[in-house]
Design brief:
single chain, 356 residues, alpha+beta, Ubiquitin-like (UB roll), Serine Threonine Protein Phosphatase 5, Tetratricopeptide repeat, 4 domains, two-stranded antiparallel ribbon, 8% strand, Ankyrin_rpt-contain_sf, ANK repeat
Length: 356
């Protein structure tokens, strides 16, 4: 058995029976096999045995059981430069084997970082296999193509769907978000039908890992004009993202404009018990309202018949007599008017006042 190992690492890359090679040209057939199986261009492969370079077919004959050390060349054996096609193939090869310094050198000598081999660019392959160190080398070397993404236009919105980063964040494509951040995508650029930010849409859709990535990259937690990430997470009941935002320093009592509501009142209105519990545990005020005609937390929960949430708010000190909402009414009144008997009982048991 012939064992092919990396000369630098000593790790075994492949093995093949000597009898499977062309007995008349074993060295050439071995290189052809390496190209077919591993994408190693013949012109880049140098094989060593016992510290001697194998250059003639006769040198490989008779080696039925041996270790061969493989070296990847970054120029032709005679010192000639690679052709543009050879450079592109070599770049793919070096990236596949994570020969980062050699890949950098090849890029500095003019290799096309977007050379396509079997339809793929080096970035396509590195991204597919999550080789982030290779991705960074290629980006630093000027690579601009990943699939249908042209990094020259990374921050444009080619359609109403939004920028590439916005769409990746919305759809939960964590690896693509990571790549686009590495490539310099505008982290706070608002786009899409609802003119939201990547963090806003990630929070709205419950993509925790993406929200964490964006926050670590410096995304704005307090985006104005209705696209506040905390508001969206509370509205849709994503308690894990609410916790992430609070731990990142987001104001638990912030006023969302133009809606004039708080995180707690939005969670109460939507009936998201876990979010309400979390906000109260983190010290959110159960009595904060932004304007007298806007609903407070207890009013919102009473109006929509959320008995469990009403009880939570009462235990946390919510005022039973706070008149608010469009009709400047109290929680007991609105619960009674809407026929929420369980809520009425809770409020009456708490000695809520009822105006005549």
């Amino acid at each position: 058995m012939l064992r092919i190992c990396g000369a630098a690492s000593g790790d075994m890359l492949a093995s093949i029976k000597a009898s499977d090679l062309d007995e008349n040209a074993p060295l050439k057939s071995l290189k052809q096999w390496l190209q077919k199986e591993f994408g190693l261009p013949e012109f880049m492969v140098k094989l060593m045995h016992d510290c001697r370079c194998l250059e003639a077919e006769a040198q490989l004959r008779g080696l039925a059981d041996a270790q061969l050390d493989l070296i990847l060349l970054d120029q032709m054996p005679d010192g000639e430069k690679f052709s543009p096609k050879q450079q592109g193939e070599a770049l793919h090869c070096l990236c596949a084997f994570r020969r980062l310094e050699a890949a950098k050198a090849l890029l500095s000598r003019g290799a096309d970082p977007d050379f396509r081999l079997h339809g793929d660019t080096p970035l396509d392959v590195a991204f597919r296999h999550r080789r982030w160190e290779v991705v960074q080398v290629l980006l630093d070397g000027g690579a601009k193509r990943l699939g249908n993404i042209d990094l020259h236009n990374i921050n444009t919105a080619p359609d109403s769907g939004g920028t590439f980063l916005y769409k990746a964040a919305r759809e939960g494509a964590t690896l693509l978000v990571q790549f686009l951040l590495m490539a310099g995508a505008g982290i706070d650029k608002a786009s899409g039908v609802d003119y939201d930010t990547p963090l806003g849409t990630a929070c709205s859709n419950g993509h925790l890992d993406i929200a964490r990535l964006l926050l670590e990259a410096g995304a704005n937690k307090q985006k104005p004009r209705g696209s506040e990430p905390l508001m969206r997470a509370c509205r849709n009941g994503h308690a894990d993202i609410v916790l992430l935002l609070l731990e990142a320093g987001t104001d638990k009592d912030q006023v969302f404009r133009p809606h004039l509501c708080t995180p707690l009142s939005i969670a109460c209105e939507g009936g998201h018990v876990n979010v309400v519990k979390l906000l109260l545990e983190k010290g959110a005020s159960p009595n904060k309202i932004c304007a007298t005609r806007e609903p407070g937390a207890l009013y919102a929960a009473s109006e929509s018949g959320r008995a469990e949430i009403v009880e939570l708010l009462l235990r946390s000190g919510a005022s039973r007599e706070q008149a608010c909402g469009f009709d400047l009414d109290m929680p007991l009144h609105v619960a009674s008017r809407n026929g929420h008997r369980d809520v009425v009982k809770l409020l009456q048991a708490a000695r809520a006042l009822r105006e005549p």
